[in-house]
Amino acid sequence: MGKKRSIDEINEKIRSGEAVVLTAEQVAAMGKEMTPAEVFKKVDVVTTATFGPMCSSGAFVNFGHTTPPMRMERITLNNVPAYGGIAAVDAYIGATETAMPHDQYGGAHVIEELISGKDVLLQATAKGTDCYPRTEVKTLINKNTINEFIMFNPRNAYQNYNVAVNSTSRIKYTYMGTLLPAFGNANFSTSGELSPLLNDPGLRTIGIGTRIFFGGAVGYVAWHGTQFNTGKPLNEHGVPVGNSATLALIGDAKQMSSRFIKAAYFEKYGVTMFVGVGIPIPVLDEDLARNVSIRNRQIETNITDYGSGNFEILGQIDYESLFSGKISFNGKKIRTAPLSSVKVAREIADILKKEISEGRFYLTEPVSLFEKTKGLNSLEIRI
Amino acid sequence: MTSKRFVLTFHPDATGQPITYNLIKKFDIMVNIIKADVSPGEIGHLVMEMTAPAKVLKEGMEYIRQQKVDCEPIDKKITCRQDLCIHCGACSAVCFAGALTMKRDSAELLFEPEKCVVCELCLKACPLKLFSIDLG
Predict the structure, then answer these.
(1) Residue B93 and residue A325: Cβ atoms within 8 Å?
(2) In this structure, which of A41, A203, A251, A326 has its CB flanked by the most CB atoms within 10 Å?
């Protein structure tokens, strides 16, 4: 057995300013020349990051009580409906929610504006009860007037994702961007070798309670994400091919920055939100050193037809080819484009590296690791 | 055939010739008036698109200028608020002209307006809606 180091030992090094912290891209470059044993010896922590559109995002808000009090039932924020089917003045504003089906303004914009410190129009109605007699309210709120503003995203940071192409003769507008007809382009969404769950594919160090960079603030992994799936085949480097694990994340949105939480609209699809996530990975042994040394050419994913409607898998491709700007497919050169910003992901990985190196961010042992095998149910139409 | 947009500026002393009529009748130029603001005794503007073989378009322009009317081609341009760009690359996906590409090393968006053919696909593709069309 090779040598090991513990998270406590790493935190001690962080405290004394001796921890060696590198970004996943830096360690990937290092891995070209060094063996995993050498990487393990040299590096204590690797920072990973991603900044991509993540629809399964939103925030809980507690507005504070009026006098007389009210149990808000139908709630809107800047006319975007928020879910009020919880306690009196709590609500959940979902990133993709819009007032009308084709609106380009939605929950993500409300969240970004609140994070920026702007005023947002709150309107709510209720039936009125003996304990909550008020039946309507209309006022302005901002992040300083509300009590809690907690971002809770049920499905973020996908471990790998499809490459989208369009085999049909018509332009397709999707959550994977605009897909030109007849394989006119190929869109992908990942930060590749910098992406959190691709650097710890077995989820040995990332679990419930892991402290992370979340939207510019400190956040935590709350649970496994929805549609968490360990059933995808692994390639020779131990990385799942296609979308597999996900994370549910939680953090104080009042502390976040609109630099790392950005509302967006995908044409004829709808509103979504770019979310910045950074996760430190402790290099506990040689196996993890090998994992964090992964390079784009060693990560593969499925080329999937988003035009035909049945999401047929047409082939596989590695991320080095995808990031090159062109891939060869069926004898044709296809232009590729990312939807996830590597530039901002690098910024996040650098911030996290600095925070750890300067002793402001310590690593956590997960309270509990995720299930090793978890499949995915489809929805059966039973009536 | 070439299509080009022009802005015609009428000075108060311009000749009273029926310019668009003559462009159509005498030069066989297809004329599409986009915007018109011409009043007697004042400086007026007419924005129109003319379609014809390039040589005929040139003759048409000369004819307009002979009537003491300024005639300048306008090229609509795509502009981008690059200061707000998050470099996601969604616009580069649709830019078949190659005016919008991702820089390999810095992972930043590179916009080269000289390569732009004003297909306007980037206007819809940008998730932050940072592109707009500038009519000159």
Answers:
(1) no
(2) A251
Partner-chain contact A323 B104, CB within 8 Å: yes
CB atoms A325 and B104 under 8 Å: yes
**Tokens 């007037």 — which residue?**
A145
DSSP code string of A97-150: -BSSTT-S-BHHHHHHHHHTT--EEEEEE----SSS---EEEEEE-TTTSS-EE
Looking at the complex, does the CB of residue A272 fall below 8 Å from at least one CB of chain B? Answer: yes
Q: Helix A24-33 to helix A342-357 angle, to the nearest 10 degrees?
A: 90
Nearest residue in A to B130, CA atom: A264
Structure pTM? Answer: 0.86
How many whole angstroms separate alpha carbon B55 and alpha carbon B66?
17
- Distance CA(A274)–CA(A203), nearest Å, equals 23
Query: Is the minimum CB–CB distance between A270 and chain B shorter than 8 Å?
Result: no
Residue found by looking up tokens 């005929």 in the block: B56
H or E stretch covering A164:
strand A163-165
β-strands A58-62, A149-156: how paired? antiparallel
Contacts of A272 in chain B (CB under 8 A): 127
B101 touches chain A (CB under 8 A): yes
Chain B residue with the nearest C-alpha to that of A275: B86
Q: Among this protein's residues, is A55 annotated catalytic?
A: no
pLDDT by residue, tens only, chain A of 383 residues: 578 999 999 999 999 999 999 999 999 999 999 999 999 999 999 999 999 999 999 999 999 999 999 999 999 999 999 999 999 999 999 999 999 887 999 999 999 999 999 999 999 999 999 999 999 999 999 999 999 999 999 999 999 999 999 999 999 999 999 999 999 999 999 999 999 999 999 999 999 999 999 999 999 999 999 999 998 999 999 999 989 999 999 999 999 999 999 999 999 999 999 999 999 999 999 999 999 999 999 999 999 999 988 999 999 999 999 999 999 998 889 999 999 999 999 999 999 999 999 999 999 999 999 999 999 999 999 99
Per the rule left: phi > 0, alpha: psi between -120 and 50, beta: everything else, A84 is: alpha
Q: In what order do the strands lie in the sheet with B69-74?
A: B30-37, B44-52, B2-10, B69-74
- What is the distance of C-alpha B70 from the center of its chain? 16
Distance CA A157, CA A50 (A): 7
- Judged by DSSP in three states, B55 sits in helix
